[in-house]
């Protein structure tokens, strides 16, 4: 595995764990992998065995998929998993805010536009295989949507 690929994999792995609100200790208990091993993996100070990675992913209900024609597919799988969770989190935050503030279901409301955009992006993730570059663009859209939603909410409070 190239250095760049390893860094991307670990970053995605950590995002997945954080998005699921699982501590290293909880992951250790669930997977049977010692917490110090998880910490070293996340700090990139070790190269764990594939069986260790598979145990960790399995305990987070994620999977590692490699296709012959796309050597980066295992990153794609994790990226899509993480982005789907981020999208769901953004949608939930917007929905809670709209409900709490009794905002109208106005198609011109920036939060409703964002929620619709996120919904469309989230559902497009499962429609095809993406290259890492395409996933990076989608991820940037999610990050923009998250930041913009937080700004709109902050400015309206």
- Total domains, how many? 2
Characterize the largest beta sheet: strand count, sense, and whether it forms a barrel. none
In whole angstroms, the N-to-C terminal distance is 47 Å
Structural class: mainly alpha
The residue-averaged pLDDT reads 77
Total strands: the figure is: 0
* Overall form: elongated
CATH architecture of the largest domain: Orthogonal Bundle
Radius of gyration: 18 Å
Number of helices: 7
- CATH first level of the largest domain: which class? Mainly Alpha
Order of helices and strands: HHHHHHH
Taking pLDDT < 50 over at least 5 consecutive residues as the criterion, the unreliable ranges are none
Would you tell me which CATH topology of the largest domain applies?
Helicase, Ruva Protein, domain 3
Give the amount of beta strand, in percent: under 5%
Please bin the fraction of helical residues. Answer: over 70%
Describe the structure.
- This protein is mainly alpha-helical.
- It is built from seven helices and no strands.
- The chain has two domains: 3-59, lambda repressor-like DNA-binding domains (434 Repressor (Amino-terminal Domain)), CATH 1.10.260; 73-155, Helicase, Ruva Protein, domain 3.
- 70% of the residues lie in helices and 0% in strands.
- The termini are far apart.
């Amino acid at each position: 595995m190239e250095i760049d690929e390893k860094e991307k994999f670990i970053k995605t792995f950590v995002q997945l764990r954080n998005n699921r609100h699982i501590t290293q200790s909880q992951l250790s208990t669930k997977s049977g992998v010692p917490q110090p091993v998880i910490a070293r993996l996340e700090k990139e100070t070790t190269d764990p065995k594939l069986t260790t990675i598979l145990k960790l992913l399995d305990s987070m209900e994620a999977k590692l998929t490699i296709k012959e024609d796309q050597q980066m597919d295992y990153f794609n799988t994790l990226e899509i998993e993480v982005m789907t969770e981020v999208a769901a989190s953004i949608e939930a935050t917007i929905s809670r805010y709209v409900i709490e503030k009794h905002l109208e279901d106005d198609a011109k409301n920036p939060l409703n536009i964002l929620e619709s955009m996120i919904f469309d992006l989230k559902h497009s993730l499962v429609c095809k295989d993406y290259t890492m570059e395409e996933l990076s663009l989608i991820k940037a859209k999610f990050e923009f949507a998250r930041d913009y939603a937080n700004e709109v909410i902050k400015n309206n409070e």
